[in-house]
Design a protein that fits this description.
alpha+beta, six-stranded mixed sheet, five-stranded antiparallel sheet
C-alpha cells in the first residue's frame, strides 16, 4: 500500500500545529500536556501508549508496534520541550502554529516537535497498513532535553530501559542537506561532542579601587579569558570527522580536494579553516578541536572595592575520545597552573556510532532515490542531544530528520521566527517512512 502523500502532508501538519500550540518551554517544561496529546492520538489509532512522569508535569511517552522478533527493535526518539522565546520579536506568535508563506511558524518547528510529528505519523502509517515487521518499532518523546535530559531520556534509561531497549535509534541532529561547490550532501549524525563545563577562578589581594595593584583577581581572570579566546587547541580527527571531510573531497572537483583534505592535517588545518566563510568557520573549527567558551562572569560587590575572587563559567565541548584530563592538559598549556579550575559534575565524554551498518546503508539508498545526485555523510554534532543517554544501552543512535533547507533557515533554531516549510515536513515524513519500512521489513 502506498500512502496518500497529500493526505499525509495535511495530517502531519495538523499534528505539528497542535504540538506547537502546547507551550512546553523548559524551564519549567510542563511536557505532560504534549505527552497526553500524543497519547490521545495513539489511542484513537489502536496503539497503546505509556505516559511516564519523571516529576510532576515532566511527561515522557513511549509507544510500540510489534514485529515478529527476527531482529532487535528500532527506536524513534525526539524531545517535546523547547527553549524560551522573546515573543515580541517574532513575526508570528511562537506558540500559534500559524501557516504563512508555505511555512509553519513556531517554537519547536525545527527543534524538535517537527521530528515528533514525523515519527508520530510514521507510527500511524505502519499501524494502518498492518505491515509485517521483522523488528519492533518504538516511539519515545521526552521531556527536558533542552536542560540536559535528566528528567527525560536520562530518567527513562535509568528507570525504564526495558521499554526503550533497541539496537538502533533515529534521533535529532542530522538529516539536513548542504551544498558545497555545486554538490549536494546530506548528513547523518553519528557522533556528538562531550561536555566539561567548569568554573575558572582567580584569587588576588582585596583593597580600595583608588589604589590599584598587580594582584587583582579581575585582571588575572581577564588575562586568562583573553588567552582562551586567542588559543589554538590541538587537532583531533575522529573517524566520523575524517569520513565527513573525505566524503566531501571525494565528490567535488579535483582542484578543490587538497583544500578540503588539508583540514585533516595538523600542519595545514588552521589555514584551511580560514578558507571557510564566517558562517561555517566556527562549526568546522569545533568539529576538529576541543573548544572552550567563557559565558558568565562573576566578581565584586561594589565598584570601589577590588574583589579577592573573580570567576568565569565556561562551556567546554570535547571531541569524542577526549577525557576531562586530556582537556585539562590542553587548557593548562594555555592559561598556566595558577588559575583554579572546578569541573561540574555533569561532565560527559563524547560518543560516536559506527556508520558502516545496514541502517546507514538504508538511509543512503532511500535518499539516493529522492536526490539521485546527492551523497550521504556521517556527521559530528558539536553540541549534545539525548543520544548521550540512549547510547548507554548499547544502542547505535543516528541523528536523522531529513530536510532540504538553507543555512539561514537552520539558523532559526533557538532563535526568533523558527519555522519549517510544509514541503520539508512532507519530505521528512516520506523519507523516514521509506527508511523505516525498508529497514524493518528486510532481514
Amino acid at each position: 500500500m502506498t500512502p496518500n502523500w497529500k493526505s499525509v502532508r495535511e495530517e502531519t501538519t495538523k499534528y505539528l500545529q497542535d504540538l506547537i500550540r502546547i507551550d512546553t518551554t523548559n524551564p519549567p517544561g510542563n511536557e505532560i500536556q504534549a505527552a497526553e496529546y500524543l497519547a490521545g492520538v495513539f489511542k484513537r489509532e489502536g496503539i497503546a501508549p505509556t505516559v511516564l512522569e519523571s516529576a510532576p508535569g515532566r511527561g515522557n511517552i513511549v509507544a510500540r508496534i510489534k514485529g515478529d522478533g527476527r531482529a532487535a527493535p528500532l527506536l524513534l526518539m525526539a524531545h517535546i520541550d523547547v527553549v524560551p522565546v522573546e515573543a515580541d520579536k517574532w513575526q508570528h506568535p511562537p506558540f500559534g502554529g500559524d501557516i504563512a508563506d508555505g511555512f509553519l511558524w513556531g517554537r519547536g518547528t525545527l527543534d524538535t516537535k517537527e521530528l515528533v510529528a514525523m515519527e508520530l505519523m510514521l507510527m500511524l502509517l505502519l499501524k494502518r497498513e498492518g505491515k509485517s515487521l521483522a523488528r519492533d518499532i518504538i516511539f519515545m518523546a521526552n521531556a527536558d532535553e533542552e536542560a540536559g535530559g535528566r528528567m527525560g531520556a536520562g530518567w527513562m534509561v535509568e528507570h525504564h530501559r526495558d521499554l526503550i531497549q533497541a539496537e538502533y535509534a533515529i534521533n535529532e541532529g542530522g538529516g539536513m542537506s548542504f551544498d558545497v561547490l555545486g554538490k549536494r550532501f546530506f548528513t547523518v549524525q553519528t557522533g556528538e561532542k562531550g561536555t566539561a563545563r567548569f568554573v575558572m577562578r582567580a584569587r588576588g589581594r582585596p583593597g580600595h579601587a583608588a589604589q590599584p595593584h598587580s594582584d587583582n583577581a579581575v585582571v588575572k581572570l581577564a588575562d586568562a579569558i583573553q588567552k582562551i579566546g586567542a588559543a589554538e587547541f590541538p587537532l583531533h580527527v575522529t573517524k566520523t570527522v575524517h569520513d565527513f571531510f573525505q566524503g566531501i573531497a571525494d565528490n567535488v572537483d579535483q582542484e578543490y580536494r587538497p583544500g578540503i583534505l588539508a583540514l585533516l592535517d595538523a600542519k595545514t588545518h588552521r589555514d584551511a579553516i580560514k578558507g571557510f566563510d564566517d558562517g561555517l568557520r566556527p562549526m568546522v573549527n569545533a568539529m576538529l578541536h576541543n573548544t572552550v567558551t567563557p559565558t558568565m562572569l562573576d566578581a565584586g560587590t561594589k565598584i570601589n572595592v577590588i574583589p579577592s575572587v573573580a570567576e568565569a563559567q565556561c562551556d567546554t565541548r570535547l571531541i569524542p575520545g577526549q577525557s576531562k584530563d586530556d582537556f585539562l592538559r590542553e587548557l593548562r598549556a594555555v592559561i598556566g597552573k595558577n588559575m583554579e579550575i572546578e569541573i561540574a559534575d555533569n561532565y560527559r565524554m563524547g560518543r560516536e556510532s559506527d556508520h558502516h551498518t545496514p541502517l546507514f546503508d538504508t538511509i543512503t539508498r532511500v535518499l539516493g532515490r529522492h536526490e539521485p545526485k546527492s551523497s550521504v555523510l556521517p556527521y559530528l554534532v558539536t553540541g549534545a542531544t539525548d543520544a548521550r543517554w540512549v547510547t548507554q544501552l548499547g544502542t547505535k543512535v543516528y541523528g536523522f530528520c531529513p530536510m532540504i533547507a538553507s543555512t539561514s533557515e537552520l539558523d532559526r533554531v533557538h532563535a526568533h521566527n523558527e519555522r519549517i516549510s510544509i514541503d520539508n515536513l512532507e519530505f521528512g515524513t516520506r523519507v523516514l517512512y521509506e527508511v523505516v519500512t525498508e529497514f524493518a521489513t528486510k532481514i
